Every structure is written in structure tokens, then in C-alpha cells.
Amino acid sequence: MNTTAKASYQRPLDFKRGRIDMNHGAGGRQAAQLIEELFVQALDNPYLRQGNDGALLDIPAGHRLVMATDAHVISPLFFPGGDIGSLSVHGTLNDVAMLGARPLYLSASFVLEEGFALADLQRIVASMAHASREAGVPVVTGDTKVVERGKGDGVYISTTGIGVVPLDCHISGANAKPGDVVLLSGSIGEHGMAVLSQRESLAFGTTLVSDSAALHTLVAAMLAAAPNGAVRTLRDPTRGGLATTLNEITRQSAVGMHLQEDAIAVLPQVAGACELLGLDPLYIANEGKLVAVVDAPHAASVLAAMQAHPLGHAASQIGVVTADPHHFVQMSTRFGGRRVVDWLSGEPLPRIC
Amino acid sequence: MKHIDAYRNGDLARGLAATIAAEAKPERQYNFMEFCGGHTHALARYGIVDLLPANVRMVHGPGCPVCVLPIGRIDMAIALALEHTAIVCTYGDVLRVPASAGLSMQKAKARGADIRMVYSPADVLQIARNNPSREVVFLAIGFETTTPPTALVIQQAQRENLPNFSVLCCHVLTPSAIGHILTSPEVAEWGTLPLDGFVGPAHVSIIIGSAPYEPFATQFNKPVVISGFEPLDVMQSILMLVRQVNTGRAEVENQFTRVVTREGNRAAQAVCEQVFELRDSFEWRGLGEVAHSALQIRPAYAAWDAEKKFTLPYLRVPDHKQCDCGAILRGVKRPTDCKLFATVCTPDNPMGSCMVSSEGSCAAHYTYGRFRDIPLVTHP
Ligand code: SF4
């Protein structure tokens, strides 16, 4: 990120009409200009300003490192409640937080398609900067590459997060035990349906916005509400939705689960849109929700801590962990019947009839 | 969405369940076929089976349009995309159905075929307008519900004289399938057909009305209750069927009166009549050839008929030899009777039609109900 070119010798980037071209990824003057005038401007922090290819980081003593990485590919790039920029920050921070860690640093790498409007890129980077500032986690290093027109979907963003977790904190998808309680931080399906509502050829009118949010402060509040070890598992039900996340946990922990359908909140707009398209909200993506498996004696205090946090105000207990050699996630329906909440087979595709 | 919640009220459901249990005579067995995949889905997803007394059994019929689409037809669509380099568009879950040579439309897409998912045939028309140098084909599937929109776009294409648009028509008809189930020679081979009545289709009946089911009530002496797709609709319809059986009636009753009439939607029927005519015979996956059970495009619209335009051969592709779909779709066997169920045949790797879409009977049982086949694990 070394930029020696004097700004006055160069025409500044034209953010109104300008477009990405192959030179922006060639590592020359134009690449440096893009980094300087866009990325460093927006994401500004001392680490980034050092201008090295990497970042030298401080880590508090008595902790272990947590690292998570995520590639973000989304269409459309802008959707109600967010865009690929903020999403790429939230998604990775949440992956770090789901191990009980405090996220400290982010890196970001951009794959840009030739012809992409600079104005859109500026909007995305600004949103990313806003999300990272709001979360208190700086983007300390990054990279950009440009691919030829037609070889990318505008922008791909890959982010990596680093966080720290105290030596005595052990949170894992493998820790759930029969008798534990399953908590969910709020209503499901908003992100997935907000994105779908904007898809070309589908575009249905809705007031729905994505729930995209960084969850690490909620996690911190939950961990503070119970002794070490009480919170066994944390996970954010993103792609594949709640159903997939719970199946992952039961398989990893070799347990079963029994859910109560009427305890799982679904906004009426989400339920309505799902109905229309023949989709099940249990399989729709979320970007600002988490599932926690907590030992029964401390479930009430953890739930209270969640409800006291803005991102968990609609939290509820949705079920219990059972001993089940088949690792089934079962659900008592609102009707009083029972069903399996299974893994998804392939992508959720709308029904016809 | 108050409207939806009203049809999913758990207390009402338990009340209905109690009434069904009280009125179903313990000394007899009630076997009802829900024709539509939508009903199969509702029964499974809301766990309604648990609320019914043991002697009221629901049998899943062939009413899932994706499940009954024969592999040979999907092969035709893939050939159009791969060999004729057409843009082939279709509805969502068709993309996943396995086709010949280890392909599916989704997999063909990964091999470079231009295959697109659409939500309505009007979108396909737009794609054709936007790509004048490409052939654009709509793989049109479904029962009477999805037929009128297809007819409308064919007429629109004719009005616009759109030369690069065509339809691979695979629309099928509900009453012929029900008739086939009641009369096919295979059934005689398997012995008694244990069906006491039908839960009739909802969306289909909005178009065709309730009248086309009347022959089943009179000729075959089977009650039909046309039912909405909400779980409470289905339960109420089951109760109505139980009452008909108890009183020895066989009538067409309409539970879904909020939408369905006896005549159906005349305007929609007229459009379909203009554009389509009956096929002599059509292959249904799981049922085989069924006479007069599907539609083809009339000669007047031949320019928009992909089968005529591309001279596509149709090759029959049989299901796995041990697949019991035929018996299951006719109510003679249950999914768990099939040797392949949940071992060789799973939703990720379906061998027969019943496993193809989540509305198929094998898939619904696999996805929502298989815990019933093994000892239940109680709470800690
Ligand atoms: S389990 Fe598979 S092979 Fe067997 S009947 Fe069902 S769909 Fe056919």
C-alpha cells in the first residue's frame, strides 16, 4: 500500500463516472491511487497507514487466537438493510465471536470486475468502514485485484478476522450435552428474504430489511451472565438457516434436539414471502442472529442477558438437547404434531404448485 | 398475515383432531389419498399425521408436478441447452431433478449450458426479447394451475411475432391421473386398491372448478373433498371425508369454497383451450404412459412449439428396477416398503419420482417423518 505518487501530479479518481479498469489491479500508479484515495481514506487507521504489505499486531497475554475467514459473493450487491461491504464485516466478525472470542482485527481482499462503477465501489467501501468502526474492529490490511469484464460479479470480498479468547474459555459445536437448553437470539429468515426480494425477476414489494449485524457484544454479554463453561455452543445460522445450523451442532456433538415450533419467531413479512415462494423460514439465511446451547441451570440468566441486549431483545428458548443416536433435530409443530427438521438437500428452490 | 395464522391455529387443530377421532369408527379403516404434493407437504411439515387416529391413513398421490415429470423430458431440455445452445428457462425445483448421464439441469449449467430459473413464463418472454440472436425455450411443467400462464405467453409471442421463443410443453392433467390410479391394470395386479376417498387439489381446482371430479364420485363411488393447502384446511377436509364414508355418501364437496367454484375460471379455461389440445398419451414418471393425460401445443401455434421447432426425439428412461414408485403413487405400498428407501434412494440422490421433490411421498417421509420408523428418543 505504498503510495509515493504526489496527488497533485495525478487527476483524482472520478467517483461519479469512473469505472474499474485492468490498470487498477496492475500494481502500478493507478492501483496505488485506488488504494490511497478509496480504501485508506475510508478505512483509515494506524495499521493501514503504515503502508506495509502486512500488519504487525498486538495480542493481549493470557489469550488464544481465533481466526476466521469468509468469501462474500452476493447478488444483488445492495439490499435492504445492507450491502456486500457491511455484510463482509459482520459475517467474519460473527464467525470469530461464535467461539466466544473478542474480535480485534480484520483484513479484506477485493476482487473487482473490470467496468465496475467507482461510485458503487465507494459506497461499498464506505459501508464497510462504517460497519468496522461501529464494531470497533479495524481493517488493518488488504488487497485488490481486477479481473476482466465478464469474469466476476462486480465485486467479491474476502475478509479474515482475528480475535482473542481467554485460555479458559472453550466454546464449540461439539460441546452440547443432553439436557442443555437451546436459545435463539431473535426472529429468523430476514436476511435471506430481504435479499431474495431484490432479485431481478422476483422483486416483490416488502418492508423487510436484512438483520445483518455484528454479534460480538451480544456474545460478550451472554458470557458475562454465566460462569465459564455454561455456554457450550454458539453459532450464527447463516446460509442454510436455523435448520442447518442445528443439524451441524447435533452431528458435531453426537446428540439430538427437540424444538418447539411456536417458540421460533418469524416476522409476518418473512412468513408471507416464504409462503408465496414455497420456502421454509427454517432454511433461510440470517446474518445477525445466533443460536446458543447453554447448560440448563444457567439458561435463564443467559436468556435474560440476551433479552437485555438490543440484538437479542426477541431471544427465546426454542428447545432442548436430547440423547439421540440418530442425531435428529425434531420439532413439535404448532399443531401438536411432530416432524424432523432435516438437513437441506441442495439449495432451497421455490416450489411450483 | 393474520390470514395465514388463522389457518394454523394449534387449538383449532386439536379440536378438529378430537372430532375426527370421535367420528372415525374404530372398527373400520379409512384410506384417503391426497392427490396434491402441496397437501403431502402440509401433512408432513405440520406433523398432522400424529393428530390422526391410527385407522385414518393418508396416502400420497402423484400430484407433485416435478416428481411426475419423466427423465426423458428433462433430457430433452438439457439437449436443447447443450446441443442447440438455447437458453432454457424453467421453474425452480426442476433444476435439481436427476436426468440421464449423471446430469441434471443444474449440472448441465455447470457444464456451460445456459439454463435459467424463472418465476413466471413472462420472464422467459422478456429474456427472448433481450436476446434476439439466441433461441430461448421455456420448459413448461405443472398441472392446470400453471397452464394458463403458459398459454398466455404463447399467445403473446404470436402477437409480437417473436421468432426466437418456444415452449417445451409438459403440462399434465389432474383428473386423468386420478382416473388412471383408479383404473390402471397394475392396480388389479396388486390386489385391492385401498382408497376410500380423495383430498382434491386446491390450486388446480381454482382453474378447472370442482365439476371435473364428479365422475369419480358417481362412477367409482369415491368421495372427493377439494381442500385448501393450509393445515387446518386439510384437517377439515379429512373430517368431511370421514363423514361421507360414515354415511355412505360419495360426493364432490368443496372445503375450499373461499376460492373454488363448480365452474372454475372460465377465462383461464378458454385461453388454454385456444392454445392447447389433448395428447393421445404422455409418460408420467412412476405411472408410465397415461392416455389423454397431458397437453400439447395446437398446430396454429407450431412456430412456438419447441418439439416441432427442434425435432427433438423423446427417449424413455426407466426408473431404478427396484423402485416401488408405481405402487406408492397408487396407494398400494408405503415408502418404507421400498428396499431402496433411505439407503440407495435419498433426497440427495433420488432413484424414483417419489424422492425427487420435497413434495414426493418418499421425500416427505424421509425429510419430515422418518423418526417414526425408529424407536423415539424421549427427553432427558
Ligand atoms: S424410495 Fe426411491 S426408489 Fe423407492 S419408491 Fe421411493 S422414490 Fe422409488
Automatic annotation (TrEMBL), chain A:
Single GO BP term: protein maturation
PurM-like C-terminal domain segment(s): 177-330
Pfam families: AIRS, AIRS_C
Highest taxon in the source lineage: Bacteria
All copies of domain PurM-like N-terminal, residue ranges: 51-165
Family per similarity comment: Belongs to the HypE family.
Name this protein carries in UniProt: Hydrogenase expression/formation protein HypE
Organism expressing this protein natively: Rhodoferax aquaticus
UniProtKB/TrEMBL annotation, chain B:
Gene Ontology biological process terms from the UniProt entry: protein maturation
Entry protein name: Hydrogenase maturation factor
InterPro entries assigned to the protein according to its UniProt record, in alphabetical order: Hyd_form_HypD, HypD_1, HypD_2_sf
Similarity remark: Belongs to the HypD family.
ATP-binding as UniProt keyword: no
GO MF term (any one): carbon monoxide binding
One Pfam family linked to the record: HypD
PANTHER family: HYDROGENASE MATURATION FACTOR HYPD (PTHR30149:SF0), HYDROGENASE PROTEIN ASSEMBLY PROTEIN HYPD (PTHR30149)
Record bears the keyword Methyltransferase: no
Organism: Rhodoferax aquaticus
Domain of life: Bacteria
Protein encoded by which gene: hypD
Key words of the record: Iron, Metal-binding
